[in-house]
Amino acid sequence: MTIEKSEVLDRLNFEAFYRGELEGVEKATGDELKAPCPFHHDENPSFYFNKVSGRYYCHGCSAKGDVFNFVQERRGVTFQEALTELAHHVGLNGNGSGQKKEQARAVDENIKAQYDYFYEDGTPAFSVFRFEEEGRNKTFRQWHYDYQAGQWIQNVQGVRLVPYNLQAVIEAKTVFIVEGEKDVLRLKDLGLVATTNPMGSGKWKDEYGQFLKGKKAIILADNDRPGREHAEDVKAKIKPFVDSVRLVELPGLPPKGDVSDWLDAGGTIDQLREIVAKVPEETKPKGPWDSPVSIKRMATTAPPPFPWFAKQRMPQGRGLLLTGIGGSSKTTLLKQMAIGAVLGRVAWEWEIVKTGKAVLILTEDTADDVHDSIFNMCKALNCTDAEIDLLDQNLVIFPLAGHDTLLLAKDDKGVLQKTDLFTAFVQKVLDLGDVAFVGFDPALSLSEGDELKQDEQRKLGKMVDDMAVKTGATCILVSHSTKASNSVDEIGSHNSRGGGAITDAVRGEFALRTMTAKEAQKAGIEDVEERKRLVQFVATKGNRLPPAAFVPIWFRRGDSGVLSQVEVSMDKNAPSSKEMKFLDVLKDLSRTSCATIEEWRLKTIELGLLPGTSEDASKKAIQRIANKLRSAGFVEKGIGKGVWKPTDFDE
Asked: What is the β-pairing status of strands 534-542 and 508-514?
């Protein structure tokens, strides 16, 4: 029979129709309601519709029209197709019944399926419910659970949306993308990993692509115009992230059919694989000018937390430079940082955020050198048996003295290129998995480049940053600094010997240098040996580093060379704030009895004021602090050998 437009309008409940199409519908004024616009990215509801006339207008993108225009734009169909769909919606579908057929009510008794969405860490995000009711069309709603209120909230406002089956997607190498949670579960039954987006066709968000980074994606399109357009939209949005993508249209599908219909008709997993294999992979990467960032998205959504290796001190997943002249303990610091990456702690006041495996390329070390270092460092850190087992499993060191370790070499035309050894090392790190830290020592042994040629130095720095980006590890390259940097009052950036181009190519630079004679004079340190034990460590470049990172800290080298943080004041007459804490400890001890310097030392170690030092180093440190406090008039020697007391204490 012929269906007239007026017949559809007479029977259509406009409010119910729009509520079935839109999320977050709320009252506006009079007969109008509002919701986020489905035709553009809309954080603040700007789409208004009239529940009496059925007409709509968006104040954001200026979309307007009636329900027929809405269906045409939303589905990408002709007017006749929109008329047929809406006629079917109200029961005017040619069967002579003339009965109005509305959507199922979203009430508990009509719930026929619940699809739970989870975040990356497995915590619940929200759920999609399918409602079915006799005589009505099925409908879907997205709800989230308020654990404080102990009830379901019938919307997802303020909830971060993610794809379905996210944890399995993150672990998979190949992911099928379908339209609907039911299809995801059907493919799961076949042993395949699949996902879909919430809210149906046309609602795939750009940010979902991050979860498919480096994966192979296979999109299975539904057999209708909206389904095909949705599949094309998904493909365009994920291409910047995936290694490859295939868009597959399954043969023999009924109109509006999907992969579940195909499987119900007898399709098998082997047939599916054969069909997929016949579709060429699209792997051609986009050029650098094809994908500018979305300024609107960046201006309206909070950025992700900055990834730190050491909180507020070293970034995760980027290349860094560590400079210092010979004998400034660069290699020792590199080793101690690698141990810190595994154990989550170092012998100075840094918070290690990203832990995992650590890998070191030490081109000037033998196995005996490494043995000596690891033994003394574990001893200084008081490593437990469990921590030593953890290091055994996760610290990978290659002592390569006497080996060819060129990661950059010149080709026949004299151009510096990455070698097969570099490619193999990248793969080694990727195969190890969960590598948090990689160290290279020293730079000169890794490249055939001339350190006086800035372009070749820049390539060396870029090689390290490329390694970091490819593996996600913090990668540090050790480089010799200029001799002049060891005598300046304040260390600046671009310290590497031969020029600053290598620093320009990495994301951060750190410097080490032995205490100068001028600094020792300011600090009141007269013992030359003690001065030579003290090393300054400071960040000299880092775009995301806070000012505190550029304040130097001081290390003291123990007899075995192990570094531990110490407090050094450049006013020899004024104890530092940390040294005043030692005074507080002595005051507490003196409340019950006179304290010896040995008792004082042991108590400060117990309280963590002298961490990670040997017995000899801690004895020298407490004696130095006692003498400084005495010079400032805070303490004095008591009666008895080795007894110290606060000056305001009566024995």
From this structure: antiparallel
What pLDDT is recorded for position 101? 54
Confirm if 510 and 328 have CB atoms less than 8 A apart.
no
Task: Give Cα 608 to chain centroid, integer Å.
Answer: 32
Cα distance between residue 616 and residue 499, in whole Å: 40
> Sign of dihedral through CA atoms 516, 522, 523, 527?
positive
Closest CA to 423 of 410, 437, 406, 402: 406
Residues 554-564: pLDDT tens digits?
999 988 889 99
Minimal CA–CA distance to 200: which of 240, 267, 256?
A: 256
CATH number for the domain whose boundaries are 308-557: 3.40.50.300
Is residue 99's pLDDT more than 50?
A: no
C-alpha–C-alpha distance, residues 607 and 616, integer Å: 18
The set of residues, in sequence order, having a beta carbon less than 8 Å from that of 448 and lying 6+ positions away, is 406, 408, 409, 410, 416
Residue with tokens 């671009």: 494
CB 317 within 8 A of CB 472: yes
Give CA–CA dist 433/440, Å, rounded. Answer: 18
CA angle 3, 9, 12 (to 5 degrees): 105
Positions of CATH 3.90.580.10 in the chain:
5-89
Tokens, residue 645: 């007391």
Please name the fold of domain 166-277: Dna Topoisomerase Vi A Subunit; Chain: A, domain 2 (3.40.1360)
Which segments of the chain belong to CATH 1.10.10?
Answer: 577-646
> What fold does the segment set 577-646 form as a domain?
Arc Repressor Mutant, subunit A (1.10.10)
CATH of 5-89, one of 1.10.620.20, 3.40.50.300, 3.90.1150.10, 3.90.580.10: 3.90.580.10
d(CA 643, CA 636): 9
Convert the pLDDT of each residue in 340-385 to its tens digit.
999 999 989 899 999 999 999 999 999 999 999 999 999 989 999 9
DSSP letters of 190-258?
TT--EE--TTSTT---GGGGGGGTT-EEEEE--SSHHHHHHHHHHHHHHTTT-SEEEEE--TTPPTT--
User: What 3-state DSSP class applies to 29?
Assistant: coil
* Distance, CA of 119 to CA of 163 (rounded, Å): 9
| 383-392: pLDDT as tens digits | 999 999 999 9
**Cα 439 to Cα 452: distance, rounded to the nearest angstrom:** 23
Q: What is the pLDDT of residue 153?
A: 84
What are 321's strand-pairing partners? 477, 509
Q: Output the pTM of the full model.
A: 0.49
Q: Is 165 left (phi over 0), alpha (psi -120 to 50) or beta?
A: left
Cα dihedral angle (133, 129, 37, 124), rounded to 10 degrees?
A: 170
| Sequence-separated (6 or more) residues with CB below 8 Å from residue 293 | none
User: Are the beta carbons of 212 and 142 closer than 8 angstroms?
Assistant: no
Predicted local distance difference test score (pLDDT) of residue 286: 61
172 DSSP β-pair partners: none
How many CB atoms lie under 10 A from the CB of residue 481?
Answer: 25
Distance CA 283, CA 459 (A): 27
Confidence at residue 39, expressed as pLDDT on a 0 to 100 scale: 86
Q: Which two tokens stand for residue 106?
A: 């979203």
**CA of 16: how far to CAs of 22, 67, 563, in Å?**
10, 12, 71
- Report the pLDDT value the prediction gives residue 572, as an integer from 0 to 100: 63
Q: Is the pLDDT of residue 166 over 90?
A: yes
Q: How far apart are CA 100 and CA 44, in angstroms?
A: 33
